[in-house]
Write a structure and sequence with these properties.
It is a single chain. This protein is 51% helix and 12% strand. It is of the alpha+beta class and 259 residues long. The protein folds into two domains: 11-147, no CATH class; 156-256, no CATH class. Helix 1 (11-30) packs antiparallel against helix 2 (37-57), helix 2 (37-57) packs antiparallel against helix 3 and helix 4 (95-105) packs antiparallel against helix 6 (123-147). The protein is elongated.
Length: 259
């Protein structure tokens, strides 16, 4: 089997490189790598897999460019919808937009393989690739839904929402209690005006100190828990402390608090 066109000079190779560069750029803007580098690499591979499958099965460069372009539009739309339109303060985890993106993006190579004039010999490999991606992301979605708000690890991006004028200079590290019921992290921003940071956070949904995490999938039964934040003045910039509590711990504490 000859994989014609996948060399550096072939149109498939150039299209694959362009798709990879675009996904990395989107990841840089959405700051996937602020928490875990390995997680960011995994997200890049999952996002890129349906695009590479399209490049593999498309009969012409025009079909590949149009289809991958539509996948990019879908990617940007679900990220903005999850992190901006559906957010009421804290941002939803990556799986909130990755699940609907995968559901839509995987359809493109499948349609090309079923009804389009695909390249001979690449149907099976591409089908296995997109099937594996769909299985992995579906498993992550099932696991997240099963957690039911028990995850208490905050993301650094909660201190600087997407499309806000705030920039992170040091994302900090996550510290947790012994039972992992409560986790927190200190995120340092470039901004030095505490009141301006508070005003920007209020404009992006932080109307009170503690807020439920909302996203695209919260209406489908996905519970991402609650997050709280505290803004304070630091030596090299404003420090935003983001903390989260597991639902069982929060409910236990509320039950024990005097009424």
């Amino acid at each position: 089997m000859r994989w014609r066109g996948f060399g550096v000079r072939g149109w498939r190779g150039r299209a694959a490189c362009a798709a990879a560069a675009g996904v990395v750029l989107v990841g840089f803007v959405d700051r996937w790598a602020l928490d875990e580098r390995w997680l960011a690499a995994a997200v890049v591979l999952v996002v890129l897999a349906p695009m590479l499958a399209v490049v593999a099965v498309a009969a012409t460069p025009r079909v590949a460019v149009i289809t991958v372009g539509l996948q990019f539009v879908l990617l940007v739309c679900v990220i903005v919808a999850s992190q901006v339109w559906s957010s009421r303060g804290p941002s939803a985890p990556v799986v909130d937009w990755l699940l609907p993106y995968t559901a839509g993006a995987v359809c493109a190579p499948v349609v090309l393989m079923v009804v389009g004039r695909s390249v001979r010999g690449r149907r099976f490999e591409s089908l296995v690739a997109v099937g594996a991606v769909a299985l992995v992301v579906g498993g992550c979605g099932w696991f997240t839904q099963g957690m039911g708000g028990e995850n208490s690890r905050p993301a650094a991006t909660d201190a600087a929402p997407l499309l806000s004028p705030l920039f992170i200079s040091a994302p900090g590290v996550v510290d947790c209690t012994e039972n992992s019921a409560v986790c927190w992290r200190d995120v340092r921003l470039r901004e030095r005006d505490v009141e301006r940071v508070r005003a920007v956070l209020r404009e992006h949904g932080w109307s009170q100190e503690c807020r439920p995490v909302t996203g695209l999938l919260t209406g489908l039964g996905f519970d991402y828990g609650w997050l709280c934040l505290h803004v304070a003045e630091g030596r090299d910039g404003v420090v935003v402390t983001v903390s989260g509590e597991a639902r069982w711990w929060r409910e236990q504490r509320w039950f024990q608090e005097p009424r």
